[in-house]
Design brief:
Nuclear Transport Factor 2, Chain: A; 6-stranded mixed sheet
């Protein structure tokens, strides 16, 4: 396993960031959700329903995104929802790599289902996150960038495999250089 430089406390804090990235929106706490990101963080949604990739950069754009997510007007994986839908986002298989001091790469699968209403829940979309995280001087971890690649998006498999391979290679290189 290539998480050698991440301490147990780092791993716990990183997993908490991932959990909060979903739960804070469920709880209607948009400002706290945006605080999980660095001030100039980038969130990119690639291939939702075959749409052109969409980017959100910086605190102001992330606040707008968070509000749209909370209202059910937009979903990272499913794109625009007309009419608004109440969605449940489920993260799984969170994997962390310590690339270098104060930086980590994270990957997770996302499944989005509908909830509420008269119909039973149904699957809307799924895909994978490829994240870069930074440990601030105060000790808290923040997302530096998040890229979501929807399942079925053109090039998704190649992009996801490339991102995982690149992250793993960076981690191995860092560990090998520290051992030398």
């Amino acid at each position: 396993m290539i998480t050698e430089w991440l301490s147990t406390a780092d791993r716990v804090q990183l997993l908490e960031v991932y959990a909060r990235s979903v739960m804070l929106l469920e709880l209607g706490r948009c400002t706290e959700w945006v605080d999980l990101f660095l001030p100039q963080a980038l969130v990119r949604c690639a291939g939702a329903r075959g749409q052109t990739p969409i980017e959100f950069k910086g605190r102001d754009e992330l606040l707008v995104l968070g509000r749209r997510l909370m209202c059910g007007e937009f979903d990272i994986a499913a794109g625009s929802n007309v009419p608004p839908l109440r969605c449940r986002n489920i993260l799984s298989n969170i994997t962390l790599f310590g690339n270098e001091a104060r930086r980590a790469a994270g990957y997770a699968f996302l499944t989005v289902t509908t909830i509420g209403g008269r119909e039973p829940p149904r699957w809307l979309a799924s895909g994978a996150y490829s994240d870069r995280l930074f440990k601030c001087p105060a000790g808290s971890w923040r997302f530096e960038s998040r890229m979501f690649i929807a399942d079925g998006a053109e090039g998704a498999v190649l992009s996801a495999n490339h991102a995982v391979t690149a992250g793993a290679k960076e981690a191995v290189k860092g560990i090998e250089s520290r051992r030398s």
